[in-house]
Amino acid sequence: MHIANDSKNGLDSLVIPGGESTTLLKLLESGGFLDRLRDFVSTKPTLGTCAGAILMATVVDNPPQPSLGVLDIHVQRNGYGRQIDSTIEIASTQKLDGPPLELVFIRAPKIIGTGPGVEVLATRRGEPVLVRQGKMLAATFHPELSIESRVHKCLLAMARSQ
Ligand code: GLN
Question: What percent of the chain has pLDDT over 90?
């Protein structure tokens, strides 16, 4: 993860990737990056995918863990089950133009609550899987593993319009 806190560093937007949120947290805490990352995410377009979405959430369960607390969603880690339950599905995209979206879920978190400022862009079986709040986008799936790039284009559009 490349972290910067202002445009002097030449960074207009950021992807906080998937992986293991506990490990990301440990590295961020030990490197003293947590506050800088929180500042960046609060002001610049950021896409959090899977563990990245967990890091951005205001409330994390299963088990509870600290986070940046910037995106008003309540997530349940591994909410769709364990590694063996990882799956590829198709979502209806309420707010993204184009065909249904492929969703690659890998030990994905489930969004079980959204605050009033959070817009749901795509759902799976009625549950939010892609959300936006201001300049923050979060996906509980891995858009980088699908052939199309609509989610990343959304981030780039926000970065361009700053
Ligand atoms: N289950 C992981 C976590 O809780 C996230 C998995 C992922 O990013 N693919 O951090």
Answer: 80
Question: Which residues surround ligand 1 with Cβ inside 6 Å?
Answer: 18-21, 50-51, 54, 77-78, 106-107
Indicate if 50 belongs to the active site: yes
Instruction: State which fold the 2-160 domain adopts.
Output: Rossmann fold (3.40.50)
pLDDT digits (tens, 9 = 90+) for 75-85: 999 999 889 98
pTM over 0.85: yes
Atom of ligand 1 nearest to the CA of 50: 8
Size (the chain), residues: 162
Residue-range domain boundaries for the chain:
2-160
- State how far the Cα of 98 lies from the Cα of 95, in Å rounded to an integer: 9
Q: What is the pLDDT of residues 121-149, one digit of tens each?
A: 999 999 999 999 999 999 999 999 999 89
Q: Per the residue annotation, which of 89, 102, 127, 144 is the catalytic one?
A: 144
Q: Which atom of ligand 1 is nearest to the CA of 78?
A: 1
Q: 61 forms bridges with which residues in the sheet?
A: 76
Whole-number pLDDT of residue 2: 46
What is the full DSSP assignment across 44-93?
S-EEEETHHHHHHEEEEETTT------EEEEEETTTT-SGGG-EEEEEB-
At residue 64, what is the residue type?
Answer: P
